[in-house]
Protein backbone atom coordinates (compact mmCIF):
# COMPACT_ATOMS: atom_id res chain seq x y z
CA UNK A 1 0.00 0.00 0.00
CA UNK A 2 1.09 3.54 -0.77
CA UNK A 3 1.23 5.70 2.31
CA UNK A 4 0.79 9.44 2.07
CA UNK A 5 3.69 11.03 3.88
CA UNK A 6 3.46 14.82 3.69
CA UNK A 7 6.65 16.68 2.96
CA UNK A 8 7.77 19.29 5.47
CA UNK A 9 6.48 22.07 3.20
CA UNK A 10 3.14 20.35 2.62
CA UNK A 11 2.81 19.65 6.35
CA UNK A 12 3.37 23.32 7.03
CA UNK A 13 0.67 24.27 4.47
CA UNK A 14 -1.78 21.75 5.93
CA UNK A 15 -1.04 23.10 9.38
CA UNK A 16 -1.59 26.70 8.32
CA UNK A 17 -4.84 25.82 6.55
CA UNK A 18 -6.17 23.81 9.47
CA UNK A 19 -5.44 26.50 11.99
CA UNK A 20 -6.74 29.43 9.96
CA UNK A 21 -10.12 30.61 11.21
CA UNK A 22 -12.72 32.32 9.07
CA UNK A 23 -12.21 35.61 10.83
CA UNK A 24 -8.70 36.08 12.05
CA UNK A 25 -5.96 33.59 12.53
CA UNK A 26 -6.15 30.82 15.06
CA UNK A 27 -2.94 29.26 16.24
CA UNK A 28 -1.99 26.09 17.91
CA UNK A 29 1.53 26.42 19.13
CA UNK A 30 3.38 23.16 18.78
CA UNK A 31 3.56 22.75 22.54
CA UNK A 32 -0.20 23.21 23.02
CA UNK A 33 -2.64 20.32 23.17
CA UNK A 34 -4.57 19.74 19.93
CA UNK A 35 -7.96 20.77 21.34
CA UNK A 36 -6.75 24.26 22.30
CA UNK A 37 -7.20 27.18 19.91
CA UNK A 38 -5.49 30.45 20.73
CA UNK A 39 -7.16 33.17 18.71
CA UNK A 40 -4.44 35.33 17.23
CA UNK A 41 -5.34 38.70 15.77
CA UNK A 42 -4.09 42.29 16.13
CA UNK A 43 -7.43 43.27 17.71
CA UNK A 44 -7.07 40.49 20.26
CA UNK A 45 -3.56 41.72 21.09
CA UNK A 46 -4.85 45.26 21.46
CA UNK A 47 -7.76 44.48 23.76
CA UNK A 48 -5.63 42.06 25.79
CA UNK A 49 -3.31 44.96 26.58
CA UNK A 50 -6.34 46.83 27.96
CA UNK A 51 -7.58 44.01 30.23
CA UNK A 52 -4.08 43.27 31.49
CA UNK A 53 -3.34 46.88 32.45
CA UNK A 54 -3.82 47.47 36.19
CA UNK A 55 -4.99 51.07 35.68
CA UNK A 56 -7.85 50.14 33.30
CA UNK A 57 -11.10 51.28 34.95
CA UNK A 58 -14.04 48.85 35.34
CA UNK A 59 -16.03 50.37 32.46
CA UNK A 60 -13.11 50.00 30.06
CA UNK A 61 -12.35 46.55 31.43
CA UNK A 62 -15.92 45.36 30.78
CA UNK A 63 -15.83 46.83 27.27
CA UNK A 64 -12.55 45.07 26.48
CA UNK A 65 -13.86 41.73 27.82
CA UNK A 66 -16.91 42.24 25.60
CA UNK A 67 -14.76 42.89 22.51
CA UNK A 68 -12.40 40.00 23.20
CA UNK A 69 -15.34 37.64 23.69
CA UNK A 70 -16.77 38.63 20.30
CA UNK A 71 -13.42 37.94 18.66
CA UNK A 72 -13.16 34.53 20.33
CA UNK A 73 -16.79 33.68 19.56
CA UNK A 74 -16.26 33.55 15.82
CA UNK A 75 -13.78 30.64 15.77
CA UNK A 76 -15.59 29.07 18.74
CA UNK A 77 -18.81 28.83 16.73
CA UNK A 78 -17.08 27.28 13.73
CA UNK A 79 -18.56 23.99 12.54
CA UNK A 80 -22.01 24.63 14.02
CA UNK A 81 -24.46 22.66 11.89
CA UNK A 82 -26.34 24.66 9.26
CA UNK A 83 -29.27 23.89 6.95
CA UNK A 84 -29.61 25.00 3.35
CA UNK A 85 -32.45 27.45 2.83
CA UNK A 86 -33.78 29.27 -0.20
CA UNK A 87 -34.17 33.00 0.38
CA UNK A 88 -35.95 35.46 -1.85
CA UNK A 89 -33.81 38.59 -2.16
CA UNK A 90 -35.29 41.74 -3.73
CA UNK A 91 -33.66 40.52 -6.95
CA UNK A 92 -33.79 36.70 -7.11
CA UNK A 93 -33.74 33.47 -5.11
CA UNK A 94 -30.47 32.81 -3.24
CA UNK A 95 -29.00 29.65 -1.73
CA UNK A 96 -28.32 30.43 1.93
CA UNK A 97 -27.54 28.57 5.14
CA UNK A 98 -29.00 28.98 8.63
CA UNK A 99 -27.70 27.65 11.95
CA UNK A 100 -29.53 24.50 12.94
CA UNK A 101 -28.27 23.78 16.44
CA UNK A 102 -29.61 24.25 19.93
CA UNK A 103 -26.80 26.19 21.63
CA UNK A 104 -26.66 26.75 25.38
CA UNK A 105 -24.36 29.36 26.91
CA UNK A 106 -23.07 28.46 30.37
CA UNK A 107 -21.58 31.49 32.11
CA UNK A 108 -19.72 30.66 35.31
CA UNK A 109 -20.79 33.18 37.96
CA UNK A 110 -19.66 35.76 38.46
CA UNK A 111 -17.01 36.66 35.92
CA UNK A 112 -18.60 34.66 33.09
CA UNK A 113 -21.55 37.07 33.11
CA UNK A 114 -19.30 39.61 31.36
CA UNK A 115 -19.12 37.30 28.34
CA UNK A 116 -22.83 36.56 27.85
CA UNK A 117 -23.98 39.63 25.91
CA UNK A 118 -21.27 39.53 23.23
CA UNK A 119 -22.01 35.87 22.45
CA UNK A 120 -25.75 36.57 22.39
CA UNK A 121 -25.11 39.32 19.86
CA UNK A 122 -23.85 36.79 17.35
CA UNK A 123 -26.04 33.87 18.56
CA UNK A 124 -29.26 35.62 19.62
CA UNK A 125 -31.26 32.38 19.89
CA UNK A 126 -28.92 30.68 22.37
CA UNK A 127 -30.29 29.80 25.80
CA UNK A 128 -28.35 30.80 28.93
CA UNK A 129 -27.75 28.38 31.82
CA UNK A 130 -26.02 29.82 34.89
CA UNK A 131 -23.66 27.91 37.16
CA UNK A 132 -22.39 29.57 40.34
CA UNK A 133 -18.88 28.79 41.51
CA UNK A 134 -16.11 30.52 43.43
CA UNK A 135 -12.60 29.50 44.36
CA UNK A 136 -11.80 28.95 48.00
CA UNK A 137 -9.02 31.50 48.58
CA UNK A 138 -6.95 29.17 50.74
CA UNK A 139 -7.23 25.92 48.83
CA UNK A 140 -7.95 27.31 45.32
CA UNK A 141 -10.58 24.57 45.04
CA UNK A 142 -13.87 25.47 43.32
CA UNK A 143 -17.01 25.63 45.44
CA UNK A 144 -20.36 25.34 43.67
CA UNK A 145 -23.20 27.52 44.97
CA UNK A 146 -25.79 27.70 42.17
CA UNK A 147 -26.98 25.03 39.78
CA UNK A 148 -30.45 24.85 38.30
CA UNK A 149 -29.57 22.84 35.22
CA UNK A 150 -32.32 20.36 34.42
CA UNK A 151 -31.64 16.66 33.98
CA UNK A 152 -33.11 16.06 30.53
CA UNK A 153 -32.98 17.63 27.05
CA UNK A 154 -29.47 19.04 26.92
CA UNK A 155 -28.55 21.53 24.19
CA UNK A 156 -26.65 20.22 21.15
CA UNK A 157 -23.72 22.49 21.97
CA UNK A 158 -22.74 24.07 25.29
CA UNK A 159 -20.38 27.03 25.37
CA UNK A 160 -18.83 27.56 28.80
CA UNK A 161 -18.01 31.23 29.43
CA UNK A 162 -15.38 32.18 32.00
CA UNK A 163 -12.68 34.82 31.40
CA UNK A 164 -10.12 32.98 33.56
CA UNK A 165 -8.93 29.38 33.44
CA UNK A 166 -6.25 29.08 36.14
CA UNK A 167 -5.84 25.64 37.75
CA UNK A 168 -8.72 24.38 35.61
CA UNK A 169 -10.61 23.20 38.72
CA UNK A 170 -13.73 25.26 37.97
CA UNK A 171 -13.91 24.25 34.32
CA UNK A 172 -13.35 20.62 35.33
CA UNK A 173 -16.47 20.78 37.56
CA UNK A 174 -18.54 22.53 34.89
CA UNK A 175 -17.56 20.06 32.18
CA UNK A 176 -18.46 17.11 34.43
CA UNK A 177 -21.84 18.71 35.21
CA UNK A 178 -22.56 19.27 31.50
CA UNK A 179 -21.53 15.72 30.64
CA UNK A 180 -23.92 14.50 33.36
CA UNK A 181 -26.61 16.58 31.70
CA UNK A 182 -25.81 14.74 28.48
CA UNK A 183 -24.17 17.50 26.42
CA UNK A 184 -21.98 16.01 23.69
CA UNK A 185 -20.34 19.09 22.17
CA UNK A 186 -18.71 21.22 24.88
CA UNK A 187 -16.62 24.31 24.07
CA UNK A 188 -14.84 26.54 26.58
CA UNK A 189 -14.41 30.27 25.86
CA UNK A 190 -11.90 32.03 28.05
CA UNK A 191 -9.89 35.24 27.81
CA UNK A 192 -6.71 34.16 29.61
CA UNK A 193 -5.75 30.63 30.51
CA UNK A 194 -2.73 29.31 32.37
CA UNK A 195 -0.73 26.56 30.75
CA UNK A 196 -1.12 24.09 33.66
CA UNK A 197 -4.92 24.53 33.64
CA UNK A 198 -5.16 24.13 29.88
CA UNK A 199 -3.07 20.97 29.99
CA UNK A 200 -5.21 19.53 32.77
CA UNK A 201 -8.48 20.07 30.88
CA UNK A 202 -7.00 18.84 27.59
CA UNK A 203 -5.74 15.66 29.26
CA UNK A 204 -8.94 14.88 31.18
CA UNK A 205 -11.38 15.96 28.44
CA UNK A 206 -9.77 15.48 25.02
CA UNK A 207 -13.12 16.10 23.28
CA UNK A 208 -13.66 19.51 24.87
CA UNK A 209 -12.43 22.38 22.70
CA UNK A 210 -10.89 25.39 24.40
CA UNK A 211 -10.78 28.84 22.74
CA UNK A 212 -8.62 31.49 24.38
CA UNK A 213 -7.11 34.87 23.63
CA UNK A 214 -3.94 34.23 25.63
CA UNK A 215 -2.11 31.38 27.31
CA UNK A 216 0.06 32.51 30.20
CA UNK A 217 2.94 30.35 31.38
CA UNK A 218 2.29 29.82 35.06
CA UNK A 219 0.41 30.28 38.33
CA UNK A 220 1.80 31.97 41.43
CA UNK A 221 1.65 30.63 44.98
CA UNK A 222 -1.98 31.85 45.30
CA UNK A 223 -2.94 30.04 42.06
CA UNK A 224 -3.29 33.38 40.24
CA UNK A 225 -2.39 33.46 36.54
CA UNK A 226 0.99 35.14 35.87
CA UNK A 227 1.12 37.71 34.37
CA UNK A 228 -2.68 37.39 33.94
CA UNK A 229 -5.01 40.31 34.61
CA UNK A 230 -5.82 39.97 38.31
CA UNK A 231 -9.33 38.89 39.34
CA UNK A 232 -11.71 39.25 36.38
CA UNK A 233 -14.87 39.09 38.54
CA UNK A 234 -13.69 41.88 40.81
CA UNK A 235 -12.57 44.04 37.87
CA UNK A 236 -15.85 43.55 35.95
CA UNK A 237 -18.03 44.33 38.96
CA UNK A 238 -15.68 46.83 40.66
CA UNK A 239 -15.55 44.89 43.91
CA UNK A 240 -12.38 44.81 46.06
C1 LIG B 1 -12.26 32.84 39.05
C2 LIG B 1 -12.51 32.70 37.57
C3 LIG B 1 -12.80 31.24 37.39
C4 LIG B 1 -11.89 30.61 38.42
C5 LIG B 1 -10.65 30.13 37.75
O1 LIG B 1 -13.46 32.94 39.73
O2 LIG B 1 -13.51 33.54 37.07
O3 LIG B 1 -14.16 30.91 37.64
O4 LIG B 1 -11.59 31.63 39.39
O5 LIG B 1 -9.84 29.42 38.61
P1 LIG B 1 -9.53 27.87 38.47
O6 LIG B 1 -9.25 27.58 37.03
O7 LIG B 1 -8.31 27.68 39.34
O8 LIG B 1 -10.71 27.10 39.00
P2 LIG B 1 -13.56 33.51 41.25
O9 LIG B 1 -13.36 32.41 42.24
O10 LIG B 1 -12.61 34.66 41.39
O11 LIG B 1 -15.07 33.95 41.36
P3 LIG B 1 -15.79 35.24 40.75
O12 LIG B 1 -16.01 34.98 39.29
O13 LIG B 1 -17.05 35.32 41.52
O14 LIG B 1 -14.88 36.44 40.97
Automatic annotation (TrEMBL):
Question: What is this enzyme's EC?
Answer: 2.4.2.9
Output this protein's name. Answer: Uracil phosphoribosyltransferase
- Gene behind this chain? upp
Q: Does the keyword GTP-binding apply?
A: yes
Every Phosphoribosyltransferase domain range: 40-239
Any one Pfam family here would be UPRTase
An example Gene Ontology biological process: uracil salvage
> What reaction does this enzyme carry out catalytically?
UMP + diphosphate = 5-phospho-alpha-D-ribose 1-diphosphate + uracil
Instruction: Please give the cofactor(s) recorded in the UniProt entry for this protein.
Output: Mg(2+)
Q: Which UniProt keywords apply?
A: Allosteric enzyme, Glycosyltransferase, GTP-binding, Nucleotide-binding, Transferase
Fetch the InterPro entries from UniProt.
Answer: PRTase-like, PRTase_dom, UPRT, UPRTase/APRTase
